[in-house]
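Whiteboard transcription, Tuesday session. T.W. wrote the structure tokens on the left side:
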């Protein structure tokens, strides 16, 4: 059986040979981390995303304490399409209970993830939020373990993720070229924070693919606002709230503007947006089409940028002291 698929722009991911949809499906909301999501809705959301041309799906055992992987697995299975029609990334090293980047744990972790996802392999296996582990362990133990998994065919490519941008250069400067295929940065390429921009030339030179997540600043740039656990400062939260209210007062959607802002940079291979309903998929895909056809609403963007100016590039601490 095949599902008629709409066309979405595909972008090359570093040197991997993969072509990922410009919008990627962030599956953390399927783990009910932003509010409860029923299985039937999770499956329908994955189906709608695929139908609309999204071919890239991102999850982790950490999201919803393994629930996201299970839900995504069900959604992908229900598509009943060839495995090569979609690209799946999951992660290792971060779990609900604790961080563990040991070779033993990550080697076991991929088997558990594959079982939950009902897959034989993933396309990308990321070390998840490496700033919470020892970066030297990531270099000397975790990545070599992932290379072994790559040779065994359990993952096609290796990635690293995290919040502080200097973790990427730390690791990439210490591993042989071609060892780490992609990086996943989050909350650093959106209207309120665009600091990832400075790192892109370095990553390009290394041939490392760039995935940028959380264009909506993990929910802050939405009308409903971020979740309770959001780590941003009260100033950043209230500035984002004011920006969302401003867009609403003009009859505009902040989510559309925020997503388009991230998508407009073609050096970023895929922008991962968390989605948990068919209507969110429809809205986000419509934003992509509108950007292609009409470009950005520059007037509203300038107004929102002015509101966010006092908190521009403000971030929050993440990880452990590496000294
Ligand atoms: P996000 O900025 O994409 O925001 C997600 C929130 O916005 C959710 O509550 C979602 O339901 C809501 N939303 C999405 N589209 C909407 C719309 N059109 N209207 C209203 N609300 C909408 O943040 P995120 O989910 O944290 O990030 C995206 C994905 O990137 C994650 O699901 C995950 O896969 C990945 N990610 C990875 C890391 C990491 O590896 N360290 C960190 C953050 C995110």
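and on the right, the sequence the group agreed on:
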């Amino acid at each position: 059986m095949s599902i008629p698929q709409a066309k979405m722009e595909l972008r090359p991911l570093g040197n991997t040979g993969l072509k990922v949809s410009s919008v990627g499906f962030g599956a953390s909301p399927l783990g009910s981390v932003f509010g409860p999501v029923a299985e039937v809705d999770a499956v329908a959301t994955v189906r709608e995303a695929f139908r609309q041309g999204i071919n890239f799906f991102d999850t982790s055992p950490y999201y919803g304490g393994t629930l996201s992987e299970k839900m995504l697995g069900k959604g992908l299975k229900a598509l009943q399409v060839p495995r090569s029609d979609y690209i799946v990334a999951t992660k290792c090293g971060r779990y609900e209970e604790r961080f563990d980047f040991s070779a033993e744990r990550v080697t076991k972790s991929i088997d558990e993830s594959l079982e939950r996802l009902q897959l034989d392999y993933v396309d990308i296996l990321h070390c998840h939020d490496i700033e919470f582990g020892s970066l030297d362990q990531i270099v000397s133990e975790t990545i070599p373990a992932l290379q072994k998994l790559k040779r065994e065919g359990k993952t096609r490519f290796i990635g690293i993720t995290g919040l502080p941008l200097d973790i990427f250069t730390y690791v990439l400067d210490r591993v042989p070229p071609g060892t780490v295929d992609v990086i996943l940065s989050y909350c650093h390429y959106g209207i309120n924070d665009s600091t990832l921009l400075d790192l892109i030339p370095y990553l390009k030179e290394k041939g490392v693919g760039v995935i940028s997540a959380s264009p909506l600043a993990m929910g802050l740039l939405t009308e409903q606002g971020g979740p309770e656990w959001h780590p941003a400062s009260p100033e950043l939260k209230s500035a984002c709230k004011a920006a969302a209210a401003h867009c609403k007062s003009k009859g505009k959607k902040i989510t559309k503007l925020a997503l388009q802002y991230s998508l407009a940079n073609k050096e970023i291979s895929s922008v991962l947006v968390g989605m948990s309903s068919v209507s969110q998929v429809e809205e986000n895909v419509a934003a992509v089409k509108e950007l292609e056809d009409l470009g950005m609403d520059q007037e509203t963007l300038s107004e929102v940028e002015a509101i966010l100016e006092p908190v521009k590039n403000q971030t929050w601490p993440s990880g452990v002291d590496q000294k």
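Someone added at the bottom: Residues 7 and 53 are 5 Å apart (CA to CA).
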